[in-house]
Design goal:
Elements: E1 13-17, E2 20-29, H1 33-41, H2 43-49, E3 53-55, E4 62-66, E5 71-80, E6 84-91, E7 94-105, E8 108-117, H3 123-140, H4 152-162
Antiparallel strand pairs: 1-2, 2-8, 3-4, 4-5, 5-6, 6-7, 7-8
Helix pairs in contact: 1-2, 2-3, 3-4
Amino acid sequence: MGDAPMDPAEYGRVIDVDGVAVLRFERRLPYAPHEVWRALVEPDATAAWAFRMELEPRPGGTVRFDAPDTPIVGDVIACDEPRVLEYAWGGHEGHWHVCFMLDADGDGTWLTFDHLAPHPHSPDFAAGWHWHLDRLGELLEGGTPAAVYSDEHFEELQRLYSRGEG
């Protein structure tokens, strides 16, 4: 991150999946799928790049987040370690639904992240997920993302997505 220019390939874009608008991010990560998976499911790891999350790793299991104002509880839709993690919850702006898909790619992993609801066209959601995925990358690199809910990078992403540049 830092002063390095942002890679346009890392921007989210809205695509059509079977007639449904989906905000999609695709990232090539130089880590094995099991390493990325741990960062997506272990509570201390999720706390570093997003919110502390605990889940029952099975379809129909429960997912819980320690959000800033109140705990959030949702449902695990799909859990196929280390390939697919999909869950949904009710929260700010209504029903949320996201899916992480991991594919082995040589010595790394191809991460596909889909935000299905709410409002996949929202520039704020695009900026937020972009920021969280950058923080996930920082954690995987061995860094410790700052314990903040916003920073200059997030604000820059908000400006870029609001102008339609992401």
